[in-house]
Write a structure and sequence with these properties.
Layout (H helix, E strand, L loop, with lengths): L2 E7 L5 H9 L17 E7 L2 E7 L11 H15 L2 E7 L6 H11 L5 E6 L4 H7 L11 E2 L8 H16 L17 E7 L5 H9 L17 E7 L2 E7 L12 H16 L2 E7 L6 H13 L2 E7 L7 H15 L8 E3 L11 H12 L5 H14 L4 E2 L2 E2 L1 E9 L4 E7 L6 H14 L8 E6 L60 H13 L24
Parallel strand pairs: 1-3, 1-4, 4-5, 5-6, 7-9, 7-10, 10-11, 11-12, 16-17
Antiparallel strand pairs: 2-3, 8-9, 13-14, 15-16
Length: about 550
């Protein structure tokens, strides 16, 4: 079944950008000027394995007359009548505007499911402002960046939920679909070429399902294989090897690389396969960092372990190296095995399931705040500009990956190293090793004008005092900038002292002095007004 989706919202929130991304082509014109799209535009699209019929609409304008804006609004309402699901987009950088609230009231009177999206949420400040969308009454907003493709995996999960609801094969439970064991766990097997990825999947399946060999680069497409492990549905995705970007020259390999990155985006657990001889090289670090930025659960697999002479010493060396060079993924589980002989492969799936549960974990708010009090007592927040930062309250907003929001005074001044301390303490206290954790710090009172989360600059300190403008009297003309300021009428002015005219005797005395020439007295000024003293004999 093809799901029909209408993308709606006020002007210039990124509807056409998301339309183009889901369609896979630049079909709609995109520009910073609001009001570019006016008619409904239809296109077929796809997200993951879901086929979509997309409807791009004009920006919602509140008008009821016969104007162009009113006719554009009617086109948007017709698109809502046809759609199975409405993607209601708001701008995370601007927050919730009055026009968003008016459109939200209109959507509440429509018989169509609404998925709230906070677009342009790629920055820290934008993510904090996106939380304002809670006030619209459509639940938690999905943080998305249609231009950069961030958050597309979360959008896929929500659209998949609505697809199942419409087709009738989804049953709502008390705790939603996060813990639905009938849904397959998507596991992507990634790594550099010839690291043993396909061999590992064949050994897990117990059959030669995938083509293997000593040649590097045999796998080109991302191949999905459905599998059942101890009653749990598993979807394994074999991917092409990822090399450094400078070495990727052929067009076919570029397409394979893009397909592998797409598999990481839509995966839930990522297994990074590395050869024990050259584990954690530059390309492995870049892949692991990409997985962490995408928010996926990660597991390290060290392959070809049957050829290692001292396994215990080598494993300890690899574990220390991983924690040192990837501190943001400290504690990630490591499984050493051999895909060819099957040695150690029985530990892989239990580790994957445990990591998946940690990645989906939800912590109670009371336990979080008890932990926060102990964490602050153990390591108090630093004082910035002479003022102490005071964390007040903490809550978890979502899982997969675990996302937390911390309310604190002077949130804009909390340094990054203290946030890292809180994240590492969270991992240790709630047993979430290696799981990527998102932490957002927000102000717990009115919006601070210098708060990064409110879109202002990061300047600290009081606001600069400005002189009050002078209130002009009615009919008073503004003063010219070059005009001399005159005193008001009625002001008593002291009389000017006039110099007395010189007498004839004084003039005669001056004339005789000039005619006599320079004085011969010691210290008298010479010709030109200079002293007669030798150079270098005066005061220094």
């Amino acid at each position: 079944m093809t799901l029909k989706i209408a993308i709606v919202g006020r002007p210039n929130v990124g509807k056409s950008t998301l339309f183009n991304r889901l369609a896979g082509k630049k079909l709609a014109i995109v520009d910073d000027q609001p009001g570019v799209t006016r008619d409904r535009r239809y296109a077929t699209g796809r997200i993951g394995d879901i086929d979509l019929m997309l409807i791009d609409t004009a920006g919602f304008e509140y008008a009821d007359d016969e104007s162009l804006e009113s006719r554009m609004r009617q086109q948007t309402e017709k698109a809502l009548d046809e759609a199975d699901v409405a993607l209601f987009m708001v701008d995370a950088r601007d927050g919730v505007l009055p026009l968003d609230k008016i459109f939200a009231d209109l959507l509440r009177h429509r018989d169509v499911p609404v998925l709230l999206i906070a677009n342009k949420a790629e920055g820290h400040g934008a993510q904090a402002l996106a939380e304002e969308a809670y006030s619209l009454g459509f639940g938690e907003p999905l943080h998305l960046s249609a231009e950069h493709g961030e958050g597309m995996s979360d959008l896929y999960e929500l659209i998949e939920k609505y697809r199942q609801l419409i087709e009738g094969d989804h049953v709502e439970g008390d705790d939603d679909s996060d813990d639905d064991e009938t849904k397959p766990i998507r596991i992507a097997i990634i790594g550099r070429p010839n690291a043993g990825k396909s061999t590992l999947i064949n050994k897990m399946l117990g059959e030669d399902r995938l083509l293997t060999g000593p040649e590097a680069g045999i796998t080109r497409d991302s191949i999905s294989v459905d599998w059942e492990y101890e009653g749990r549905q598993i979807r394994l995705v074999d991917t092409a090897g990822l090399r450094r970007k400078a070495r990727v020259q052929e067009k076919l390999e570029k397409l394979s690389t893009a397909d592998t990155i797409r598999a990481i985006t839509f995966a839930e657990v990522v297994v990074l396969v590395m050869d024990h001889a050259n584990a954690f090289e530059t390309q492995d670090l870049q892949i692991a960092d990409l997985v962490e930025r995408e928010g996926r659960a990660l597991i390290y697999v060290i392959s070809k372990w049957d050829t290692v002479e001292e396994p215990q010493a080598k494993l300890k060396e690899i574990m220390d190296e991983s924690d040192r060079i990837l501190p943001q993924l400290k504690g990630t589980q490591i499984v050493a095995l051999s895909g060819a002989t099957g040695r150690g492969i029985e530990r892989l799936m239990p580790t994957i399931l445990k990591t998946y549960r940690n990645w989906s974990a939800k912590v109670k708010t009371r336990d979080l705040n008890d932990w926060l009090a102990l964490a602050i007592q153990r390591h108090p927040p630093p004082a910035v500009d002479g003022k102490r930062i005071r964390p007040k309250y903490m809550a978890q907003t979502k899982g997969r990956p675990p996302t937390f929001v911390l309310f604190a005074s002077r949130a804009y001044a909390m340094p990054a190293h203290y946030q890292r301390y809180l994240i590492n303490s969270l991992r240790e206290s709630f047993d979430m090793p290696g799981v990527p954790i998102r932490l957002t710090v927000k102000a717990n009172s009115s919006v601070n004008p210098y708060d990064d989360s409110s879109g202002a600059t990061g300047t600290s300190g009081p606001a600069r005092a400005r002189a009050k403008s002078k209130v002009k009297k009615p009919g008073e003309k503004p003063a010219h900038p070059n005009r001399v300021k005159q005193k008001p009428k009625g002001t008593v002015v002291a009389p000017k002292v006039k110099a007395k005219p010189r007498t004839e005797a004084a003039k005669l005395k001056t004339f005789k002095a000039k005619a006599a020439g320079p004085s011969t007295k010691p210290g008298a000024a010479g010709p030109g007004g200079r002293s007669g003293k030798p150079a270098g004999r005066g005061k220094r």
